[in-house]
């Protein structure tokens, strides 16, 4: 489901490179389009990273719970 978000860092880097292009700065309409896309992807990437972190914490917490339940039975 989230596989398409895995390459957001590459897309953001590409857009940052484009934003430093003097020719793009001269074309204000295209420049504004790239700025909006970059801003959107940066926000999206932050939410995706938060999601991945929470998923990892869930896995770790389940492992702790399982280990504690197993230890109590012994």
Question: How would you summarize the topology of this molecule?
Answer:
Elements lengths: L7 H12 L2 H5 L1 H46 L1
Helix pairs in contact: 1-3
Description:
The protein has 74 residues and is mainly α. The mean pLDDT is 89. The chain has three helices and no strands. The protein is rod-shaped, with a radius of gyration of 21 Å. It is 85% helix and 0% strand.
Q: What portion of the residues fall into strands of 2 or more residues?
A: under 5%
* Overall strand count: 0
Radius of gyration: 21 Å
How does the major sheet shape up?
none
Low-confidence stretches: none
Structural class: mainly alpha
Give the helix level as a range of percent. over 70%
**Which word captures the global form?**
rod-shaped
Report the total helices.
3
Strand and helix order = HHH
Through-space gap between termini: 40 Å
Mean pLDDT: 89
Précis, in short:
The chain is mostly helical and 74 residues long. Helix content is 85%, strand content 0%.
Search tags:
3 helices, 74 residues, mainly alpha
